[in-house]
């Protein structure tokens, strides 16, 4: 340490490279947080609010069902993997394959908050007919 | 004063503006992170698919009805009447007592939700939210035929 004092030219330099490293890591962290809300969900669906819901469990095989409802026609439809299912029989047929082949397969239900319960029940019935009993409802943490 | 040559001048990287930009980006993302809405999950299971080889514990079951008008009935008694709020303190207190009683009796606390056909889905989620707050894990739906 004493040796440094002799070097008159040597100044206490501010190390810029580690600072930039840290800043970039912080930046990436915040970008990841904000982009986490961009999910595979349908933006047309306004999810209900449930403040006590638990954190999503990611590591499981699942199918995401987006439930839509048209009040005038009193008719609903389901969108799964960008495919629209107007009839729930076809949805049941589509779900039977992965439900049989994958262990602990579950269904994630993303339904609009204005939906009547009867349509959710019909979709649950379609899942039950496909042999799926594990269902998860998606909700937002805040309004 | 040291005279810089032209070659050295070209290689000079301006660090100060870069740090300015990074600071502004961090500030932007920090501010927007507070308002982020995240999707959370409420689990439920459908009745009728229990494994037959497992021993069956008979659960302590309560039935919650939700009417089309948004009334929440537990054992035909209305809870949190007229409340449009997502929070239902009366129902929460009752369900917490129910869970404690079930735990004391070493049975599983189970809630079955039976909404009327045109009950609002948000109300159904409100009831599931209260069940989650009361730490009741077995929440099921009764699948009824149309009214």
| Inertia-based shape of chain B | elongated
Approximate strand percentage of chain B: 15-25%
Sheet having the most strands of chain B: 5 strands, mixed
Largest sheet strand order of chain A: 3-2-1-4-5
Name the largest protein-protein interface in this structure: A-B, 54 and 46 residues
Q: Give the terminus-to-terminus CA distance of chain B.
A: 92 Å
Q: Mean of the pLDDT scores of chain A?
A: 81
Structural class of chain A: alpha/beta
Stretches of chain A where pLDDT is under 50 for at least 5 consecutive residues are: none
Return the average pLDDT of chain B rounded to an integer.
Answer: 78
Q: Can you characterise this structure?
A:
The complex is a heterodimer of chains A (143) and B (147). Chain A has 143 residues and is α/β, with parallel strands linked by helices. Chain A has helices spanning 2-6, 16-35, 88-101, 117-129; strands at residues 62-70, 75-80, 83-85, 106-111, 134-140. Chain A is built from 4 helices and 5 strands. Chain A is elongated. Chain A starts with a helix and ends with a strand. Chain B is α/β, with parallel strands linked by helices and 147 residues long. Chain B has helices at 6-11, 15-33, 89-104, 121-133; strands at residues 39-45, 60-66, 72-74, 77-79, 109-115, 138-141. The model of chain B has no long low-confidence stretch (mean pLDDT 78). At the A-B interface, helix 2, strand 4, helix 4 and strand 5 of A face helix 2, strand 1 and helix 4 of B.
